[in-house]
Amino acid sequence: xxxxxxxxxxxxxxxxxxxxxxxxxxxxxxxxxxxxxxxxxxxxxxxxxxxxxxxxxxxxxxxxxxxxxxxxxxxxxxxxxxxxxxxxxxxxxxxxxxxxxxxxxxxxxxxxxxxxxxxxxxxxxxxxxxxxxxxxxxxxxxxxxxxxxxxxxxxxxxxxxxxxxxxxxxxxxxxxxxxxxxxxxxxxxxxxxxxxxxxxxxxxxxxxxxxxxxxxxxxxxxxxxxxxxxxxxxxxxxxxxxxxxxxxxxxxxxxxxxxxxxxxxxxxxxxxxxxxxxxxxxxxxxxxxxxxxxxxxxxxxxxxxxxxxxxxxxxxxxxxxxxxxxxxxxxxxxxxxxxxxxxxxxxxxxxxxxxxxxxxxxxxxxxxxxxxxxxxxxxxxxxxxxxxxxxxxxxxxxxxxxxxxxxxxxxxxxxxxxxxxxxxxxxxxxxxxxxxxxxxxxxxxxxxxxxxxxxxxxxxxxxxxxxxxxxxxxxxxxxxxxxxxxxxxxxxxxxxxxxxxxxxxxxxxxxxxxxxxxxxxxxx
Length: 524
Hints:
58% of the residues lie in helices and 8% in strands. It contains 24 helices and eight strands. The chain has helices at 2-15, 21-25, 29-46, 48-53, 59-72, 75-89, 97-114, 119-133, 138-147, 154-179, 183-187, 212-217, 223-239, 247-260, 266-288, 321-338, 369-376, 386-393, 397-409, 433-436, 444-456, 460-470, 475-485, 495-507; strands at 351-358, 361-368, 383-385, 413-418, 421-427, 472-474, 511-514, 517-520. Strand 1 (351-358) and strand 2 (361-368) form a beta hairpin.
């Protein structure tokens, strides 16, 4: 910018030949330069939120703003303006937690480039940390981003930052270790600047890059919560795999071990070792018993139950006899090769790949063991009452009604009313067109949504009471009123979860949605 300013004065001098304008301006070059930097700094300060959204593509604007701060030292207006923009555009209930985390990481990177002292960064990010600390899904969202497989995702960026911070810490320790012997280094030492002055580098061997992963963890101030949640999510990801590929998970655990120590990740190491051992055992069993048909129908993960955060087992659940024979045969071979160890099947954690044929329509599904057991019994009997099918499967009737809805939505099973029984379930002879267009993916997302709706069920009476007194309310106001008035237990759900729950109430005929507001369904 300084070169551009002097070039402008030179061109002005060429245009003003024979005039007295240029000699008048030259003595005020420094003041004019200051005013130019001040104007550009004010412009970029107003645009800082958008600059950070586009970072690193907007790094040129960050460098320009950095030069402006060096010249004008207008840090206070920048902090005030940016914190106001955060409150208005980011820190509100409509923003998804993943978007807030993504903006937080971009803010750390951009402001680290803008201010080497880190004082501006500390001043503007405190509201983001406070806001994320108030969201219950923050730590789980951080771990989900860290463990997801998308190569161009925010999670890959967090994983890269974790690896970079560990390497940078090693290099810095080695560099400082060499410099401890140099007396001139200590003679040249100066204290830190008290103000945010990006051009002051008083400590020669200070770490210059920000530890983004550490700042994300510091939102809660403890690593134990992070490690406990990571262990639970790692268990879910491993049990949800259709193969034994754990390359990314092993890499992540190794990086976390360097960060937190080996002992903190011992349970995760055992979980990954269980998967590696299971792959070898299955390969050896399939090789030695290649002529047995059942060996091609089953792959297992043998888990050390003391280290896996498994859900409670449904002890009374019964699977079909033809499947139980295969499991017993597999367990017998395992006991022969791994004596005295024995297998105890944890059926709810299993997955089943099956093909459903209805007329000329064929569809493959990957479902849980309970879903597969339910649909299996319709092979030999077309009609079941709810109570009979629940007894046959060995599960409570309420759980059966929840699980069988998966097949009802996809047109595999129909619900019918009958005398003496509220609902009977009948095998479909044709698939409706609406069911053919239904997503035929894994039911994990749907099951998770059902669990969320169950958690929200306790707030139904609060919502109905509000709409009885106030007739019609928008989503945001319902959300804020629940946070204000529900105290035992405190309302801690996200606005997205509330929206999904209200949509369920609309589908059940309890509410009506008109425009952006909800009201109670009028009595017929």
